[in-house]
Amino acid sequence: MAGSPEHYAAHATEHTRFTQTENVPAAPASGEDAPGTSRSAPPLRAEFLNLPPRAGKKAQALSEALERPNINPELAHYAQRVLATVTHSQPTREISNLDAKNLAILVRTYNAKYPGLNLGYAKSPAEFRATLAATHEPSWRSISILDSKGSHRIAIDVRTHDDGRKSLLVMETAQALKRGKNNEPLILNGYQEFISDLNDEFGDSASMAIIDVAAQKSKIGCQQFCLDFTLHAFHKSNFFDDLHQRLHDYGQCFADGDRAEHINGMEYIQGVEILPAIFYKHAESRASIDRVLEKQPDIAGTDVSTNRYGAAETLHERVRAFGIKRDARPYSMSIEASRIRKIREAIESDPGP
């Protein structure tokens, strides 16, 4: 299930199932309404009034973008269904399927916007491995299906080193590693096969570590988080370069117990302890932000706004600005607003049919 990392395997034997309850500055998202912007805007249409104000503005801007001539019909349908859904519920299975169907257009849009991003996508682990073998770019990224029997996606940042060896930093939107009742390691289904197949095919010529970002709590939305993570990894490439070099030189980024755990030779890094604040801009729960700031108190005041013309915005301010309550559950819909903004970006950039 896309964005529904519910299936975990207890290390080696047991299968357990439970539900998930700087250096290169980021370019501004053109047209994004930043905190504190004073430009005049038409009043929100009635259908968007139940959304947080800034999310409502993004939805209205996408609705207005649909009035453009010669829009790609698939993008138009995607936008219409997202707008129809966001007014009353979290993303549905239909939205997840539309995310997947339109991924190629979004990838094309952001590769054009950010030269050097070198973002691709893979519809299966085997397709990703084929791309890994054939690609010799020094730096590139991919959004890949984790498990050939599922639809959960992962973000992968790749480096090709001078000796031809490759290093992979996999960003898991939720958690690849959890602990069971008896403190036994529980590995998200799909990872053991992904790791094993990579080792079988590449051996010592490729090294890999997994970063548990733990920003996603909902069942739908892994692809949207992955797209954001690949963009952040690109904009924070110096930070990632250092991790890749350690992985290449030492086979790991951190010693066991120092912000990471090592199980069966694989390194699982706690993203909340190392990642720049921008990776948690769209975190869906206040608890996730609290955990990040507990581990990295020095980033509490970091500006995560990507609009250079707007006021600064911290992680706590972001989660408040996009807070909404649905089905008696409060959460931040920032990632839903990000989906809306990216669809609009694609519509405004796409030449149409």
Labels describing this entry:
seven-stranded mixed beta sheet, alpha+beta, 353 residues, disordered N terminus, 12 helices, 18% strand, four-stranded antiparallel beta sheet
How would you characterize the overall build of this protein?
By secondary structure, the protein is of the alpha+beta class. The protein has one domain. It has 12 helices and 13 strands. The strands form 3 sheets. The protein has a 7-stranded mixed sheet with strand order 3-4-5-6-9-11-10, sandwiched between helices. Strands 2-1-8-7 form a 4-stranded antiparallel sheet, with no helix packed on it. Strands 12-13 form a two-stranded antiparallel ribbon. Helix 2 packs antiparallel against helix 3 and helix 7 (222-235) crosses helix 8 (237-250). The protein is globular, with a radius of gyration of 20 Å. Mean pLDDT is 90; it is low at 1-7 and 10-33.
Question: What is the gist of this entry?
Answer:
The chain has 353 residues and is α+β, with helices and mostly antiparallel strands. It has helices at 53-65, 73-86, 93-101, 103-113, 125-134, 191-202, 222-235, 237-250, 271-274, 286-295, 315-321, 334-349, and strands at residues 7-10, 15-17, 119-122, 139-145, 153-160, 166-172, 177-179, 185-188, 206-212, 260-263, 266-270, 323-326, 329-332.
